[in-house]
Amino acid sequence: MNRDCSAPFVALAFAAVAAAGCPGKLGGQQGHAPVQPIAFSHAVHAGLYEIDCQYCHAGAERSRHAGVPAAGVCLNCHSKVKTDAPEIRKLTAFVTSDQPVPWMKVHRLPDFAFFSHASHVSAGLACQGCHGQVQQMTRVEQQETMTMGWCLRCHREVRDEERDAPPPLATLAMNRMDTVTKAPARHLQPPTDCSACHR
Ligand code: HEC
Ligand code: HEC
Ligand code: HEC
Ligand code: HEC
Ligand code: HEC
């Protein structure tokens, strides 16, 4: 029998999760560093050339998923830069045949756990805190365990330290610095109840 790992999470699901063999670490796990279809290097792009993470991972601050850039973003530069290099020829071949680059996933939580980038990035957490020094990696590798214990450890630490949220970016963008500085700081309160992460 095949059970759906994304079925609503209820107490009974404990047994189901174990029995159906839905692995806790679907796809991604610590040290996972799959070979990619194009030898794209973060060390070159985010390190040497200091391209901002969110230039390519534009969803990180606003959406659940950080997202991987469409080839069009690469072509902003590679329609001119290194067009004769074999790896760039692969890239343009995908584009001319109208196919997305089949990037291999590095990180992957099981479907029964909810995680959103927006709430974490807008709380002022750096990408590197969860993904390691990506700007030094020639091939991305999962650095952390990304288990429930890992999530909860940080949630408890942030609560204990009574850390505050940074000012909301949308408000800053509207140039309302006065209201921002006068507004009372918002204490971060990462949840520790089951239903926050198992919805
Ligand atoms: C020029 C575009 C570009 C920039 C800049 C960039 N990335 Fe990426 N990133 C990619 C592409 C393409 C992939 C998919 C291929 C791969 O894993 O290397 C990726 C993959 C990733 C992954 C793994 C995604 C998965 O499958 O789990 C993480 C994490 C990541 N990037 C973080 C970062 C961080 C942090 C920065 C800034 C320090 C950054 N990236 C800067 C293009 C970029
Ligand atoms: C609080 C920890 C945390 C922070 C901070 C964080 N990430 Fe992630 N990231 C994760 C987890 C957990 C996953 C796996 C999510 C899943 O499988 O649903 C992930 C997955 C990804 C992926 C692949 C899947 C996707 O969401 O598109 C990319 C790309 C990525 N992160 C980039 C970034 C970048 C860039 C930043 C900073 C702007 C960042 N992350 C900040 C924990 C974090
Ligand atoms: C802002 C400009 C810019 C963007 C955007 C960009 N690159 Fe690059 N890329 C460069 C530069 C600069 C180099 C280094 C060229 C050199 O070595 O002279 C490079 C090098 C490379 C190389 C190595 C080429 C070789 O020498 O064999 C690959 C592969 C590559 N990029 C893939 C990508 C992919 C895939 C994307 C999109 C996810 C991307 N790049 C986005 C500027 C960019
Ligand atoms: C901060 C987020 C978070 C909270 C709060 C949380 N969990 Fe989880 N939980 C996860 C993540 C992420 C996973 C998947 C990774 C793993 O298996 O460790 C998971 C996995 C699980 C699993 C599957 C374990 C396995 O080995 O496959 C069970 C059962 C579970 N959680 C029960 C609970 C219960 C009961 C609570 C409340 C006491 C709870 N969780 C609270 C994030 C959370
Ligand atoms: C490095 C610290 C850190 C790690 C690691 C971390 N979180 Fe969080 N989490 C936070 C902070 C900070 C907030 C924001 C709290 C606020 O805004 O009051 C948050 C908020 C949340 C929320 C509530 C907001 C929302 O999006 O619904 C959920 C759910 C959540 N985290 C799940 C997870 C899961 C699942 C993991 C592990 C895969 C995880 N977190 C790992 C720090 C962390």
β-strand percent reads under 5%
Q: Any idea what the shape is?
A: globular
The quaternary organization reads as single chain
Low-confidence stretches: 1-27
Structural class based on helices, strands and sheet pairing: mainly alpha
Rg is 20 Å
Q: What's the β-strand tally?
A: 0
**How many separate helices?**
11
The helix-strand sequence is HHHHHHHHHHH
What percentage of residues falls in helices of 4 or more residues? Answer: 25-40%
Report how far the terminal alpha carbons are from each other.
24 Å
Short description:
This protein has helices at 13-20, 42-48, 53-56, 71-78, 86-96, 117-121, 127-131, 148-161, 169-173, 177-182, 194-197. The protein has a domain at 37-68 and 103-166 and 187-197. By secondary structure, the chain is mostly helical.
Could you describe the 3D structure shown?
The structure is a single chain. With 199 residues, the protein is mostly helical. It has a domain of 107 residues. It has eleven helices and no strands. The longest helix is centred in the C-terminal third of the chain and has 14 residues. The two termini are 24 Å apart. The site of one heme C has 21 residues, from α2, α3 and α7.
Write the layout of secondary structure elements.
Elements: H1 13-20, H2 42-48, H3 53-56, H4 71-78, H5 86-96, H6 117-121, H7 127-131, H8 148-161, H9 169-173, H10 177-182, H11 194-197
Helix pairs in contact: 4-5
The protein binds heme C (5 copies).
The site of one heme C has 21 residues, from α2, α3 and α7.
